[in-house]
Amino acid sequence: MSLNKKQFKAGWSLVEAMIAIAIFALLASSIISLSIGALNPWLGIGSDPQADALADEGLEAARSIQLRAWNELDLQVSGLTRTNNQWALLGEGTTETIGAYTRQLTLSPVCRDTNNQIAPCPALKTDPHLILIKATISWQTPAGLTKTISKKLYLANWASRFWQQDDWSGGSGQAVWLDKSKYDSGQNIDTATAGQVRLARQAPRCQGYTWTFDNPADYNYDPQKIEVVNGVARLKQERQYTLTQPPINSLNFVNATLNDSPSVVKVSDNVSISGIPGLVDVYAMTYRVNNNCELITMAISDDGLIRNIRLDSFLYETNNCDHSNIFRVNNNVFGLAHIQGGSRTAYLRTLGIDNNGTISKAFIDSYAFAPDQTSFPFVAKTFNKIYAIAYNRANVGQIATVKINDSGIIVHTLVGQRSLVSNAQYPTVSQWLETPTNAVLAVNYSVPAENRNYLKTFTIDLRGVFSPVGSEYSVLGANAAYRTSFFKLQGMTGAFSFIDGSGAATLQTINIQDNGAINQAPIDSFVVANNVRQARLSLVPGQPGNLLLMDYDAGSFAYISLLSVNFASGKINNQVLDTYTFGSRSSYHTVFSLDATHTAVAYRQPNAWGMLSTLGVLEGPLAYVKNATISPKNLYTQAVVD
């Protein structure tokens, strides 16, 4: 009998392999768990016991403040501070640092809905006896991550109560509120009447004086601002006016460099022009552009809209033209004064302009009234077909007269001529008074070399010959060539504008007698603006409010200010009613009135082109005047009425 022997080789059975894998997985998971647990604080994973404790401490600190003084919880965001074992809020917007941790409390109001349940704010009402405290702790983990936790707590002012007091007759001395008729302390109050507390009446500190306004002659006051009626002094009312902002209309009248201030005259009223709806007024304007002189006509309707900016145009002088000025001779005949050529010859020319704005391109007549070295010609019509010309020749101011008949024919000889003063700049002339036998002329100009501004009067006879009768008025001016302006207001009252020695745009009203004698003391004076250049006046016609416009440069801008003056008395309302700014670094501007409710300004824009803008003069309500005073004569007492 034979036996078969089996041989066994060493190795792993499947059961053994599975047991080994299970043991390895158990050991590996334990090691990984221990490793991750060790990394949690480094990565900022999980809770931080110290941060939790600081948040809890913050809430408890707020609770301790509430128990001590509810009114100290009056901030929105704050850190905490501890002094003498008492917690307090550190201040609005603050935080506190505790080691590596930052703590901040947020105090928020609590709102309630219609069911008196807490609801997100805003809601029906805010609960004055409840506040929400949130303590926020932030810190950085070793890995550089920012970690934040927050905890919230509602605090109630459970000890609060409502109280009401309407009687203080019991007096002071009650530090703790027990008696509803008493209070802690007070000064200069009257509590004698139950239900009232009021300021106590003080004894007068000086002796009073009582008077009535029975006799207006017994008091010093401005009758333009105050009236005395039936023993009562009261403020007068005046109409308020403003300028439209922005302008009604603005259009370029020339797309080239404007070299001087334009001169404007009205040609016709309420005419119908083909292609333009409704009726319009026609104006003619002359100006210097690229060293040439051009004349254009334009149409503007009664509502201030520019209907056509160039009805017609005439480039009438191309030989170094300068200082152009336009004036009316008769009906449709107009005159032009300007400088020509390198020798600066002064010309006077006439031409026709139809009511519809069509310009005759041929001169009616032409006369060179000054051969050379001439500047600033300005022409004004006087009487008996005599025209006065103010200009500067060879650095000397001149005034001359010439005759122009109604058809535009010029008598080629200066009838009269007078010298003003050396270095007279920007002279202008106007007629002050006309009688059957003579006329009084007013000439205004600046003299930079003397730092003075002048106003002079001259008398001419029926031939235009000057008589020695005249008068002079001067005020301090600037040491630069600035324009002045003057025109008659009413009766013997005139308005004079100039730049004074400090650079202020000044308006003065002046009295001139019928014989041309100028009162050396101005009626009134008012500084419109400081640090200005080229202040000039224009009149708003047809306004019972006696309105003037002053245009001037100041700094980098140009302005038009609306002023109120009593034309009869010369009294100036010492305030600017309104001001319009019409361009950054604008210059070479001319303001002219369209009617009682509209005005226009032609000026050089910042890009040097010519622009025309129209403005409305708006009438507002009546208002009481300001800065009025009245005082009894022979008494050291004054009442201010405002």
Please provide a written account of the structure.
The protein is mostly beta strands. It is 8% helix and 51% strand. The protein starts with 13 loop residues before the first helix and ends with a strand. Mean pLDDT is 86; it is low at 1-9 and 636-642.
Spans of at least 5 consecutive residues whose pLDDT stays below 50 are 1-9, 636-642
Q: Shape from CA axes?
A: elongated
- Extended strand count: 43
Report the C-alpha radius of gyration, rounded: 45 Å
Query: How far do the termini sit from each other?
Result: 149 Å
Largest sheet: 7 strands, antiparallel
Relative strand content:
over 45%
Task: Set down the secondary structure blueprint.
Layout: H1 14-43, H2 49-68, E1 77-83, E2 86-92, E3 96-98, E4 101-112, E5 118-119, E6 125-140, E7 146-156, E8 189-190, E9 198-199, E10 219-221, E11 226-229, E12 232-235, E13 237-243, E14 249-254, E15 263-271, E16 280-289, E17 292-300, E18 306-317, E19 322-330, E20 333-340, E21 345-352, E22 365-370, E23 374-381, E24 386-393, E25 396-403, E26 416-422, E27 425-434, E28 438-447, E29 452-461, E30 466-476, E31 485-490, E32 493-499, E33 505-511, E34 524-529, E35 532-539, E36 547-554, E37 557-564, E38 578-584, E39 587-595, E40 598-604, E41 610-624, E42 628-632, E43 639-641
Antiparallel strand pairs: 1-2, 1-4, 3-4, 4-5, 4-6, 6-7, 8-9, 10-42, 11-12, 13-41, 14-41, 15-16, 16-17, 17-18, 19-20, 20-21, 21-22, 23-24, 24-25, 25-26, 27-28, 28-29, 29-30, 31-32, 32-33, 33-34, 35-36, 36-37, 37-38, 39-40, 40-41, 42-43
